[in-house]
Backbone:
């Protein structure tokens, strides 16, 4: 089925909306009268997929009522790529201006189409395992310059493998959920004993994350050519980081308390199918990668990203404008590397990109880089200054793609930092 910029909806959609008819993301909605259920979004409307299924208009698809009458998208994802592709295509068809199947039946429309102001989002997926990569060469280089030899900023393995580590899925939270400033051990002065207390160098990390379908059996691998068949969609991802805690604890096994207190995600999962028109070439990889990491075609994605800091009661200030296209290692390579040893993946597993930084200072994806390890300040619109995130600050991340009159976006992930308990 072919759709293009000429495809219009019978629903009213603002031209600057992230949720055009060619997006059709998936999420979970609820309110006082609706139990948690699967939904999509078009413009400022949530599409109740359970109510839509009950009209019979999805009867030709490979889904049951239980798949939509669920508090997570996991049942839908377990049906696989072809099933979710057919579902998205059917939704575009039903909401296209020239289709009368739903449009002509007001009673059904009133049941299916709900203003987003009348619902709240819930976590879209039940996350099983979570992996965080470290795949931006600009970010890795900046960190290497700060903490190691500026002339040899990248570690010897960095251009050979998509470096990653296993994180904590239980503390991945939905946009709009407040977090408390984390506490832990720090060692601010090398010649003095460590201290314990609230983190003083709290930071955001601008990331994207992809979510997988059910994978292969334990012992099997997923190739770069197959990878997209196993990727359901993407969300914005703020991987909170306690820099001072991390500095003291990370040797020899890496970050622990510095990362496991919270990571925030956006509410709507944008499918890989919706993002296909925004493919671009990635950077040249030199030295040549191993055969299992080789790939064909354009695999990076041109996703415009923005980070804002909003002091309490004040106007938000844009502090970073970056782009997912800057990634050195792409999703296909990340998933191929993750499974090359036979690691099995599950529906609902989440894989974060690592901090996304671009080549210029205004495109750096963390306060660590923007303030250059706290040596420079970032001015807010209210006149205050930041080196790192302060109590009662709200960090907002936004992302969208736009090309040839088509806009596909993610909305935002917004999180307020409360004082330590």
Residues:
């Amino acid at each position: 089925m072919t759709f293009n910029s000429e495809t219009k909806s019978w629903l009213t959609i603002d031209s600057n909306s992230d949720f055009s008819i060619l997006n059709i993301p998936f999420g979970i909605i609820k309110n006082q009268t609706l139990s948690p259920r699967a939904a999509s979004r078009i413009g400022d409307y949530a599409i109740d997929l359970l109510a839509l299924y009950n009209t019979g208009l999805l009867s030709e698809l490979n889904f049951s009522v239980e798949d939509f009458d669920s508090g997570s998208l996991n049942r839908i994802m377990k049906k696989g790529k072809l099933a979710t592709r057919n579902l998205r295509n059917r939704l575009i068809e039903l909401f296209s201006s020239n289709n009368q199947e739903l449009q002509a039946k007001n009673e059904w429309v009133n049941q299916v189409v709900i203003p987003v102001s009348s619902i709240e989002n819930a976590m879209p997926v039940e996350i099983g395992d979570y992996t965080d990569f470290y795949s931006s060469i600009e970010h890795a280089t900046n960190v290497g310059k700060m903490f190691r030899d500026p002339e040899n900023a990248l570690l010897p393995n960095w251009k050979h493998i998509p470096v990653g580590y296993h994180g904590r899925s239980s503390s991945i939270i939905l946009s709009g959920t407040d977090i408390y400033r984390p506490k832990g051990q720090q060692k601010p002065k090398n010649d003095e004993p460590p201290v314990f207390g609230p983190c003083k160098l709290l930071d955001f990390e601008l990331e994207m994350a992809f979510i997988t379908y059910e994978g292969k059996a334990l012992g099997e691998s997923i190739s770069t050519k197959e990878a997209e068949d196993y990727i359901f969609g993407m969300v914005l991802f703020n991987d909170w980081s306690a820099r001072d805690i991390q500095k003291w604890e990370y040797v020899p096994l890496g970050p622990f308390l510095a990362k496991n207190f919270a990571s925030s995600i956006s509410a709507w999962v944008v499918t890989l199918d919706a993002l296909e028109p925004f493919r671009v070439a990635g950077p040249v990889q030199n030295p040549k990668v191993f055969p299992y990491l080789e790939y064909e075609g354009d695999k990076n994605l041109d996703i415009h990203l923005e980070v804002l800091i909003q002091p309490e009661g004040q106007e938000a200030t844009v502090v970073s404008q970056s782009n997912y296209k800057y990634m050195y290692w792409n999703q296909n390579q990340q998933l191929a590397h993750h499974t090359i040893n036979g690691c099995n993946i599950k529906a609902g597993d989440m894989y974060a990109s690592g901090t996304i930084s671009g080549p210029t200072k205004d495109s750096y994806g963390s306060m660590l880089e923007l303030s250059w390890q706290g040596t420079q300040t970032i001015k807010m619109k209210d006149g205050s200054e930041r080196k790192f995130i302060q109590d009662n600050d709200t960090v907002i991340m936004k992302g969208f793609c736009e090309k040839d009159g088509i806009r596909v976006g993610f909305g935002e992930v917004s999180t307020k930092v409360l004082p330590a308990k």
Notes: The chain has a mean pLDDT of 97. The chain is about 15% helix and 25% strand.
